[in-house]
Amino acid sequence: MELVAQEVAQHRPSSGDSPTRLQEILRYDESEDDHNEIEKSHFNEKGNQEVLHGGRLVSTYDMAELGKLRYSSEVEYSAMSTDDYEHLDVKVLKRLREVTYQELDCLINQSSNTILNSLLNGLCPDLVASRAEAVRAEEQAGNDVMSTPLFICTLAMPAMPTFLHVFEPRYRLMMRRVLEGNRQFGMVMYNRTSSSQGSLGSVPFLEYGTMLEIVNYELLRDGRSFVETRGIGRFKVRAHGMLDGYNVASVERVEDVSLAEEGALEQRETTMARDYAESHFRENPQAQLPTDIAIESLSTQQLLDVCTAFVREMREASAPWLRDRIIQVYGEPPEDPALFPYWFASVVPVLEEEKYVLLRTTHVRERLKIVYSWIGRIRGQRW
Q1: Which domain holds residue 347?
Q2: For residue 177, how many C-alpha atoms fall within 13 Å in the half-sphere facing its CB?
Q3: Is 86 helix (H, G, I), strand (E, B) or coil?
Q4: Which residues contact 280 (CB under 8 A, 6 or more apart)?
Q5: How far apart are CA 122 and CA 191, in angstroms?
Q6: Do 159 and 194 reside in the same domain of the chain?
Q7: Mind listing the pLDDT tens digit for each residue in 312-358?
């Protein structure tokens, strides 16, 4: 109605001297059941009378705005000159059709009412019917096998927030369905190099992704939305298809190996690395230990300690990627070695393609070793 008010206000100056007498005719509103018969009989009487300008449409609007035209009343019009000012009505009606069409086309899901429905059905019935048919088609949710909607956009990490600006019509529809469902969808990266993704072949996205859950949703007037999500797990795409313009998939959850298997890997690697180191220094006392052996000689806890110490060092040095506003969004570095690499990848300035490797890695130790290698490279760049 704000748009209608704006159009009427813009129309008034151009209407000139165009007087029309408006007579309110009271009518009984059938929806009001609490009137007795005597009261109902009074509704055949005449109500307020006004002389207004701008043609019938604008005059009627102005009379209602003045509070002198009841919701259930009708109006009789009397021309006060030889001109009935029909051209003014044609002009304003054309503009009202245009602005109400734009409002109808904004894809915003808001509650309606009787007056709004009457206006839309009267001004643009074909468009209303077309939109209703489109919505019915959209609401026919896809197939049961491809149950995970995919958002092909950016890299998201488990347990970390991801913020989205949704503006494409296909993803607007997807988000609406997600909100009506379990509020979860999959985030996958673009396959920029068109490389083969396992059994999927060359598809437009990378096969590993992160399942996101919507925690906050803000819908704008023009249909765009801002969405705050949090990663709740990893997955691998097994099969995919299309539903109303966006990708859907059958996915397999990606889990870390058991604690027993993780411990066995740590024991095996550290033992072999230390044995190698002893032999290496025996033969070459002054030689430096190869980087990969040096990393594998560290326990998982030692790897985490080195990584967290580096974060403290960088914060003390006021590294731009560890400013307060970044920490406010992603939180303090986790003490859990399983989660720390995801946090680090969310803040560190490293290529997304390198961070992506974390999603398909099922060993906590391996993820920490990847982070350790990034730290070594950052130190080298600084010096």
Answers
A1: 259-382
A2: 24
A3: helix
A4: 287, 289, 293
A5: 48
A6: yes
A7: 999 999 999 999 999 999 999 999 999 999 999 999 999 999 999 99
